[in-house]
């Protein structure tokens, strides 16, 4: 089959689109196979807090892509589970910042390990070169995303 010519810009966009769609699908398939019933929004929210640090409820809702009332309820549940904690906002004494607790950080680390274990069979049979390619891609993604806090 003949390959359709794509300009360098379109090739880049097509590659990025494929990468994003595949990463989302990999996460979804692996998460579903664990049988865990925790909302993906919980894991996403904990990951945002871990990566970006404490933030106000509204900022966290935007970063996690949920409505503020939904985030308010989620934070209530996470506080009750001791996965997050509220800390005083030094810039505004009327506000609170939401931060991950050590228990929440351990839960997120365990979840990531569980999902990685669940995804492992999808990669059975890869050779050393293919693993090196995946490791390189993962390193590039980490490098490009460091410090890219979601703007509120």
Automatic annotation (TrEMBL):
Name of the featured protein: MarR family transcriptional regulator
Superkingdom of origin: Bacteria
Lineage, highest ranks first: Bacteria, Bacillati, Actinomycetota, Actinomycetes, Micrococcales
GO MF terms held by the record: DNA-binding transcription factor activity
Originating species: Amnibacterium flavum
Residue ranges annotated for the HTH marR-type domain, each copy included: 31-131
């Amino acid at each position: 089959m003949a390959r359709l010519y794509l300009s360098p810009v379109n090739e880049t966009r097509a590659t990025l689109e494929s990468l994003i769609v595949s990463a989302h699908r990999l996460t979804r398939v692996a998460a579903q196979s664990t049988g865990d019933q925790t909302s993906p929004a919980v894991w996403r929210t904990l990951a945002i807090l871990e990566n970006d640090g404490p933030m106000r409820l509204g900022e966290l809702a935007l970063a996690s892509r949920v409505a503020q009332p939904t985030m308010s309820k989620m934070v209530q549940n996470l506080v009750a589970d001791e996965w997050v904690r509220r800390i005083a906002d030094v810039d505004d004494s009327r506000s609170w910042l939401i931060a991950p607790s050590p228990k929440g950080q351990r839960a997120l680390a365990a979840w990531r390990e569980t999902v990685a274990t669940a995804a492992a069979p999808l990669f059975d049979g890869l050779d050393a070169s293919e693993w090196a390619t995946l490791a390189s891609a993962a390193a590039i993604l980490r490098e490009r995303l460091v410090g890219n806090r979601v703007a509120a």
